[in-house]
Design a protein that fits this description.
2 copies of one chain form a homodimer.
Chain A (H helix, E strand, L loop, with lengths): L12 E5 L5 E6 L14 E5 L1 E6 L15 H12 L4 H17 L2 E8 L3 H10 L2 E8 L15 H14 L6 E7 L7 H14 L2 E6 L3 H11 L3 H7 L7 E5 L5 H10 L2 E4 L1 H6 L7 H6 L3 E4 L12 H16 L9 H5 L2 H6 L16 E5 L11 H7 L6 E6 L2 E5 L2 E2 L4 H15 L5
Parallel strand pairs in A: 4-5, 5-6, 6-7, 7-8, 8-9, 9-10, 10-11
Antiparallel strand pairs in A: 1-2, 3-12, 12-13, 13-14, 14-15
Helix pairs in contact in A: 2-3, 2-15, 4-5
C-alpha cells in the first residue's frame, strides 16, 4: 500500500526508481518481486518523512531542563552547550541521524553550528538537510566554546557553504538568524540582502511565545512577524519556525509573502509556549511543515508522534473533531514539509520525484485491524513501526537497523558526553 | 534502577517477591543475580502501569469514525457494535490484553459487556481488572446484538459477578452506569443503593463534553457532577471518567466526596472534547488516574503516550512549563491510578505491595543519554521500550513477547472481524 500527496492508497503497490535515485513508477503491482527488490508485502509504503525544524546536534542535552519555560530553558541550554566540544556536537548529530532515519525521517531542516564536516556526516548517512548556521548578533557570543566565530563570520561561512554545496542533492544551505529578539535589526536586514543576492532561503524562529510578541510590540510597535516583514526578510523564501502566537494579520502577511511555517506541536506544549493556529494558517494557504524541534524540548525525534499530537491538539483546543482532517498532518509531515524546507523534489511518491521511501510494518497489535492506512499512520503508528528506509534509491535502514552509521558506538559516545557534563567519569 | 511512588530511583536496584506474588524487597542490589532471577542490568524497573479507563473489547473498532466528535462518534460506534458477536468481543478483548501487557500495563479499569468468560480471560492472561458491566437504562437497548439484556438484569449480573469473584486478586467488579445523560436518575439511584449495600465501586462517564454540561444544566439545573452527587452516587467510592468540563465547584464536590477521576487526555483531544483541569484537581486533593479510553477514540493503548501527552498538554494550555511536574503524570499512571481503580495493593514498588513490575529497556537512541530515568519515562519512553512484565510475581511478558496469549492468532481473528464488518471476506 502507498500513501501519497493526494491521500490515495494502493494495496499491493509497487514503487520503482532509476539509478539516479528518481522514482519511475508508483502504482499497482505490475508483477512478482525481482531478486533485488525489497518485498513490501503486508506493509504500507509512504514518502520519506520531513522534519521541518530540528537542532539535531543537541541530542546530548536530552533531558536537561525538562521543567522550564522557553526563556529559562534557553539560558540553561546555552550554559550546557558552552561545555560541548566540536566532537560532542558531531556524535550528538550522528545520534540524531540514527534516531531520525530509524523512525522514517529522510529530510530535515536544522539550525545549528553547521560546518562542512557535519554536513558531510549528513550526506554520508544518506539523509537530506536544509542546514542553517545559527547567527545571533554580530558580536562573538562564545557559543559554544568550540565556535567563537561572530555573526558576520557565520553569515560569510553560510555563503561559502552554499557555494560549496551548490547543486548537492543532500545538502542545501540557508541563513539562520536565530530570532528577532536575539538578532538585531541590522543583522536581519543584512541577512535579507545576502539571501536575495545569493538566492538562498532563511530559517528563523518567530512568535514562539506570548512574551516575545508583547516585547516586540513594546520595542518595535510591531508583532514579530510584522517586524521581520518590515526588515525585508519575507521578500526571500523564509521558513518561520513556531509562529505559535501569529495573529490573523500575521497569518495574512505570511500567506501573501509565500513564507512557510515549521510547526512544532510537542515542543511548543512542553515549553509552555502554546498551540499554533494551524487551521487558520492552512485556510489562508500558508505552507505548513511539521517538526520536532530539538530533543532537549521534546524529547524524541519521532514525526509520527508530531502528526498524532498535532492533529488531536487542534481538535481538543477548538473543541471540534473535524477542525483538521486526519490526513492534514500527514501531508505536513511529507509533501508540505518538503516544500517548506526547500526540497520540493521529495515528500511525494510519484514518477519524477526523488526515491525517498519509507516502508512501515503492520504486523503489530496497533496496526490491527487495518481499517484505513491513513488512520493507522496518523493515529496509531510510531517510528518504531518503520521497517525499511530508502533515500535517493539507497537502502539506509534495513529491518530497523541503520546501515550507514554505527548506532552502538554513537550511543556510547553520547552517553560519555552526558557523564562528562554531569561531572562523572567519561 | 527503580521508580517508585516517592519518585526515588535506585541505580543497580533489586526487586524480590515471595511465592504469593507480594514484594519482599525493593532497594539497592544485595548481591549477584541468581539462576532464576531476571537480569535487569541496564534497565529501569518500575511499577506495573494502571490504565484507569478503557473499553478493551472494542479493539476491533480501531479506526472507525476517526473524525467525529463524541455525540456522532457514539452513534457510529454503537451501530458498529451491534454487529459484533460475543466471539468478536472475546478476540477484541484479547487483542487489547496483548497490547496493554506489551506496553507495560498490568491493571486496568474497564466498562463493557463483562461476563464470567471475559473476566476469566483477563485473569488467565495474568492481568488485573476493575470491570464494570455497562448499564444504560432499564429497557433493553439491544446493545450489542449478542447481549439483549436490559439494565436491571445487568445490575443483577454485576452483583452476581461481584459475589463470584469476591476475594479474587485479578478481578474486581464495579457498577457501570454509562453516564448521567444515558442512565436516567432512577437507574443512578438504584446503582447508588446497590453499591452501598454490596460495598462495591461505581464507574461512570461524567462531564466529558461542554454540550453534556449545558444539557444537564438545562434539564436538571445542575452540572453532571452535582447531578450525580444529588442522586447519591458519590456516597460510594466512585471513579468518574473524563471530568473534562468539571467546574471549580465540581472539583470541590469530587474532593469532598473522595471520588477519583480517570483522566484520558488523548481521547478527550481526539474527540474534540477538550482538556481536563488536572492541576486544579490535583491541588484540591482529588485522586487522578490516567487512561487511554477505547482504541476507537485514541487509537492505541500505550500509557507512556498518555503520560507525555497529558503532561505537555497542561503546560501548553496553561502556558506554564511548571504547571505539572515531570513526575505527576507518572504517578497518575502508577500509584494514583491504582488507588483510583480500587487496586491500592499495586502501582508502587515497596515491600508488602503486589509484585507487578515492568522492566524498561534503555538500549535505544531515545534513552540516550540517560540523564534522569523519570525524564526518560515521562518524555521519551514508549510502550515499545518495555522488555519484561511481571504480574503477581509471574513473568507474563518476556523480551517483548506476551507469554500468556497467542498474539498471531488474536491478530488474525480481529482482522477477520474487521473484514466481515466491512463486508469483505472474513
Amino acid at each position: 500500500m502507498t500513501f501519497d500527496d493526494a491521500g490515495s492508497i494502493h494495496p499491493d503497490g509497487e514503487v520503482a526508481h532509476d539509478d539516479g535515485g528518481t522514482l519511475t513508477y508508483v502504482g499497482p503491482r505490475r508483477g512478482p518481486a525481482g531478486a533485488g527488490d525489497l518485498d513490501v508485502t503486508g506493509t504500507i509504503v509512504m514518502p520519506g518523512l520531513v522534519n521541518a525544524h530540528a537542532h539535531s546536534a543537541m541530542t546530548s542535552l536530552r533531558g536537561v531542563s525538562d521543567d522550564l519555560d522557553l526563556a529559562s530553558w534557553l539560558r540553561e541550554i546555552r550554559r550546557a552547550e558552552l561545555r560541548l566540544t566540536a566532537e560532542d556536537l558531531r556524535w550528538g548529530l550522528r545520534l540524531a541521524l540514527v534516531e531520525m532515519l530509524r523512525s522514517g525521517t529522510t529530510t530535515f531542516a536544522d539550525m545549528f553550528l553547521w560546518d562542512a564536516g557535519l554536513l558531510g556526516d549528513v550526506a554520508a548517512a544518506g539523509m537530506r538537510v536544509m542546514a542553517a548556521p545559527t547567527v545571533f548578533g554580530y558580536e562573538s557570543v562564545g557559543y559554544p566554546s568550540a565556535d567563537p566565530r561572530d555573526g558576520r563570520a557565520t553569515l560569510d561561512l553560510t555563503e561559502r557553504l552554499a557555494a560549496d554545496f551548490a547543486g548537492d542533492r543532500h545538502v542545501r544551505i540557508a541563513f539562520g538568524p536565530h530570532a528577532p529578539y536575539t538578532s538585531p535589526p541590522e543583522v536581519l536586514r543584512d541577512v535579507a540582502a545576502r539571501a536575495a543576492r545569493r538566492d538562498l532561503r532563511v530559517l528563523i524562529h518567530v512568535s514562539e511565545t506570548a512574551p516575545e510578541v508583547a516585547d516586540s510590540l513594546a520595542l518595535h510597535g510591531l508583532t514579530p512577524v510584522a517586524h521581520v516583514e518590515r526588515l525585508g526578510l519575507l521578500e526571500v523564501p523564509t521558513l518561520v519556525a513556531h509562529a505559535v502566537h501569529a495573529t490573523e494579520d500575521d497569518i495574512q502577511i505570511l500567506a501573501a509573502a509565500g513564507a512557510a511555517v515549521a510547526h512544532n506541536p510537542v515542543s511548543n506544549l512542553k515549553l509552555g509556549s502554546g498551540a499554533a493556529p494551524v487551521p487558520a494558517m492552512l485556510a489562508a494557504g500558508v505552507t505548513v511543515g511539521l517538526g520536532t524541534d530539538s530533543v532537549a524540548s521534546n524529547n524524541t525525534l519521532d514525526m509520527f508522534e508530531e502528526v498524532k499530537t498535532g492533529t488531536i491538539l487542534q481538535r481538543g483546543i477548538h473543541r471540534a473533531a473535524d477542525v483538521v482532517a486526519s490526513e492534514a498532518y500527514l501531508r505536513m509531515a511529507t509533501a508540505a514539509g518538503a516544500r517548506a524546507v526547500g526540497f520540493p523534489e521529495t515528500g511525494v511518491l510519484a514518477p519524477g520525484r526523488w526515491a525517498d521511501v519509507v516502508v512501515v510494518g503492520t504486523d503489530s497489535t496497533r496496526a490491527t485491524p487495518m481499517r484505513a492506512p491513513a488512520s493507522f499512520l496518523g493515529f496509531a503508528a510510531r517510528g518504531d513501526d518503520v521497517r525499511h528506509v530508502v533515500v535517493a534509491g539507497r537502502l539506509v535502514v534495513r529491518d530497523g537497523v541503520v546501515t550507514t552509521l554505527d548506532e552502538a558506538e554513537i550511543r556510547a559516545q553520547v552517553g560519555a558526553t552526558a557523564r562528562r557534563l554531569a561531572g562523572g567519569p567519561a
